[in-house]
């Protein structure tokens, strides 16, 4: 009657109201109202406890809270799909056909382990529609069926998950590298792998050289593994040529940036000082993020301090305005 059921249909609502009225006639209005009040209290307490537990989990373990939120969203999406399938039977038939085609695709061109890497990379991918399209193009590059791509995307709610704030940039990079390895292992010929290597080698070199902002051992080892897979596929000579080219480009880029900073220090010292300050602030922020990842309680305390400082600043502004 309260409309809190997962199967929230008018038929069930009316039937429950009829059963409730029959019970009311049998046990009396007072006893019936007392039972309704007790049920309402219990439901409110249950909701409050659940919300409090979710709030505590978001503070103590943000990743688990994000996973729980994602599961709830998936459950709601599934309920909405079931409701639409009930209202439109032809839609349900078409959806089952798409799912069967997706399963037949999954049993086809890719091996089990690499298919899992591919799907993991798709639904743990970068934020934004543009990045999603880059993934689709990368998959198409190595000859995955064109018709299967949108079905994978829709089946795993790719565009909804691509905006998830809980996915960290190093997780996105790991997903891209795993996708690269899966595509290289399942490519039809050497030419396709060479195109993939040309596109991805600068990013792999950046991680292997330790020049990334997210400088973790896991990313280094993963990039080395992917690089060795590409080396096996395209040959040692082509692989070494690509690495030398990446090294030259990285050196040229660093030299140009340093030269531009030196010229700016001569022509506009104030702008150079501001740029230097911004770089120092960025490094400090990166160091804080790294410490927050290693010590979660430190992050909680820091957020509390920042919120308290903000409240005090707002109070000072209000006092000054008065």
UniProtKB/TrEMBL annotation:
InterPro entries found in the cross-reference section: SSU_processome_comp_20, UTP20_C
Basic and acidic residues: compositionally biased ranges: 305-314
UniProt biased composition (Basic residues): 276-290
Positions of region (Disordered): 276-322
GO CC annotations, alphabetized: 90S preribosome; small-subunit processome
UniProt domain U3 small nucleolar RNA-associated protein 20 C-terminal: residue ranges: 1-85, 170-292
Residues in the signal sequence: none
PANTHER family the UniProt entry points to: SMALL SUBUNIT PROCESSOME COMPONENT 20 HOMOLOG (PTHR17695)
Name of this protein: NOC3p domain-containing protein
Native source species: Panagrellus redivivus (Microworm)
Species lineage: Eukaryota, Metazoa, Ecdysozoa, Nematoda, Chromadorea
